[in-house]
Amino acid sequence: MLAEFAAEDLAEAEIVLAYTSDRPVAVDAVSAAVRDAARSYRAPLRVCRLSVLPLDASGKIDGSQVLVDAAVQDRRPRQFDEPATAAERQLAQIWADVLNRPRVGREDSFFELGGNSMRAAQLVARISSKLDVEVAMKQLYENPTVKALATAMVRPKPGS
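The structure assignment produced for this chain is given below.
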């Protein structure tokens, strides 16, 4: 089941895609339309799997309860996937510093770990200064995991 929240229904500057399913959906697998909407609003996209979508007394999806349930889900232990390359290790350390986390894995999504637009700006600035690489905010939104951003950073620029 997929339901939409209007932008005015969101308390934070993020787009939350909550879904129910027997299996998790990777952020990379989220439809292009949803990713494009997140970019057009310049808001991070948080994808969360819930056991049920909470409803209010009128039978509509309770957006505030979705956010509470998503926060609880975010605190559940996840399988840690160690960064595999030097670029991934460098990015993971920078992300851990910006997000104030002890460690960040290669499949962890910046926005699912609590990243927001302010922290995204800090992250991009630190990546540029520490790694001497120009990273645009758009690249982070399009590649929200350590693995994806590390791969995007090493791709040659068009026309090179």
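Interim note for the steering committee: The chain has six helices and two strands. The chain has two domains: 7-74, 86-154.
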